[in-house]
Amino acid sequence: MEKLKKYVDSELSYDSIKFRNIIFNIGDVLLIQASEENLIGELIKIIPTNGIKEYPFWPAIQVKWYYKKKDINRKKNNLLNQQNFDALSDYELFPSNHKDIIYIESILNKCKVYTYEEYDNITDPPDLTFFTRANYEIHAELLHPKFDEWKKGCICQKPLNPDQLYIKCDKCNGWYHPKCCGIDEKESNKIINNGCISIKEFS
User: Fold this and answer.
1) Domains identified in the chain and CATH numbers
2) CB burial class (10 A; 0-12, 13-18, 19+) of residue 134?
3) Do 129 and 91 meet the contact criterion of CB atoms below 8 Å apart?
4) Closest CA to 44 of 30, 34, 33
5) Is the pLDDT of residue 162 over 70?
6) Rounded to two decimals, what is the model's pTM?
7) How would you label 22-39 residue by residue, b for 16+ Cβ within 10 Å and e otherwise?
8) How many CB atoms lie under 10 A from the CB of residue 136?
9) Which helix (H) or strand (E) segment is 188 a member of?
10) DSSP bridge pairs for 169
11) φ/ψ of residue 185, rounded to 5
12) Residue 189 CA neighbour count, 13 Å, CB half
């Protein structure tokens, strides 16, 4: 044990690590195994030794957590209104300032996180693909930028949600919820089944 300690530098860290035959790099977004629900975090540090006090010779990683829609304090972020909350996507993540050191064995896979604009241009996003458009400050429980400052769409002026159905106006090229245009669910299905997702007389 003393011989091993001689060659261990507690301040040493690495840019990459190979685990389960996958190379993980600083900056990668990871799916992390947890007891109740898998979590998502950005790899910010690889710690070869002394990362976890109880197991000083086990390698560890430091991650910065992403929060999900359900984790956001709705009241503090002006999201108590259900219509506002519905503007958030189930595939939306919020980078936070919450950091933890965890075992490398907790890593399950890599994730991809895009901006909203990038994500919106992906047809049939693969599994473990997400997007972000705001950070979450956990102590103040606030979004940056604030929800009210996000880019809006439709006549309801809510942030666009890629989980929802939109119809494009041929006149202004804007995207609108069918319901906001007075189009019911039956008519929306008819438009989709006919292969047309445009409306001509709306702006």
Assistant:
1) 2-150 (2.30.30.490), 165-203 (no CATH)
2) buried
3) yes
4) 30
5) yes
6) 0.81
7) eebebebbbbbeeeeeeb
8) 24
9) helix 185-193
10) 199
11) -60, -40
12) 3
